[in-house]
Write a structure and sequence with these properties.
Elements: H1 5-20, H2 28-35, H3 39-51, E1 55-58, E2 64-67, H4 76-84, H5 111-127, H6 130-134
Antiparallel strand pairs: 1-2
Length: 166
């Protein structure tokens, strides 16, 4: 299974906001620069996260974005659902699936594995918070306002999307 760039980039942006939580606002330009993301695409994603109530924006000269809740109160699953919709590896495992919509439903031998896959993915995403991601490895930390020029190549970005401090 493959996660789309929407969910991946959106989660990376949210880890940046998690790192700045309680320390002020972040501009989308700073997030885009730190995470090497296209700003127009990031604007779209953050707009959806704002409409869902996960982030809020402040206008003005010193404006920017921040989380609406503490990082330990926002799950990866909540972010994923905003940007991707329901977790469903195949149509018949979706929350809005109408029973017997598929003519093969009664004799389908593979549906049970896809249901288990959905349940496993849901459990991992819903039990992992932004705080968990940013604390996953003590050698990683969010550094939301590091200038791109100071980053020593892509190795400065951890697998979790957080910037690795030297």
């Amino acid at each position: 299974m493959k996660v789309s760039s929407r969910a991946h980039y959106g989660l990376r942006a949210m880890t940046q906001l998690a790192g700045a939580h309680g320390r002020g606002l972040l501009s989308l330009a700073d997030i885009a620069r730190n995470e090497l993301l296209p700003l127009p695409y990031l604007e779209q994603l953050v707009g959806e996260l704002r409409r869902a109530g996960l982030v809020e924006g402040v206008r003005g000269l010193h404006g920017g974005y921040r989380l609406t809740r503490r990082p330990d109160q926002i799950s990866v699953g909540a972010i994923y659902r905003v940007l991707e919709g329901a977790i469903a590896p195949v149509e018949c495992t979706a929350e809005d699936y109408l029973p017997h919509s598929c003519e093969r439903e009664d004799g389908c031998l593979s549906r049970s594995v896809w249901t288990r896959v959905r349940d496993s993915i849901t459990q991992v995403l819903d039990s992992t918070t932004l705080d968990d991601l940013c604390r996953a490895d003590s050698s990683y930390a969010i550094a939301p306002l590091i200038a791109v020029e100071s980053i020593q190549g892509l190795h400065a970005v951890g697998k979790d999307g957080c910037l690795k401090t030297p």
